[in-house]
Amino acid sequence: MEYETKVLTHPSLQSSLEAAYVQSTDGQNALVVGRFGIMQAKRACGCLLAPEVNDQVLLALLNDGSAWILQILTRDSKANATIIVPDKTTLAAQDLLIKSKKTSLTGENVEISGETVGLTARLLHFTGSMFLQSFQVIETLAKNLRETLVSRICHTNSLDETVKGLASRKANRTRVAVATSYRLRAENADLRAKTTVDIDAEHIKLG
Fold this sequence. Notes:
Blueprint: E1 16-26, E2 29-34, E3 37-43, E4 56-61, E5 67-74
Parallel strand pairs: 3-5
Antiparallel strand pairs: 1-2, 1-4, 2-3, 4-5
């Protein structure tokens, strides 16, 4: 069915609401068709859902000749949906819950702040080129903690570690460089080497 393109320009025309179908979209504008013919319409600020081709929309025809898409009435259930809001938007609620099978949050800069921020998941995965932490206190409570690193560099003023059970460390090579003093205290100390034990100092005191 062919429609004749029409533009409402006469000031004596009264504003009205019409149903129409979207033929094409271009940014904030859309070409819509209905019983009035074909005309260009703009998306109203209150219509957060971006119009797509074949959508049935509620159209406001104003007496100044402009047409505004107020609402999306129907859409193919398999079609995607895009919500468009102004550049600076605030979403305010006393209690906000978002549910979805899959949620993606993407942005050049993403900031999350709050008195308390909790993340709960069976698997929590962080991926990136650099991870920065800046806290006054960090407390980690875990049944098992595993780290797989290519290299690890730690700079700290003091380090205090307490292990209630067995502390075991395995390495191909181990090197300890201490600037001033190194002290080993134990009820029983067992130092064994397969080939050579080399102790070199100006003064060696045993006993």
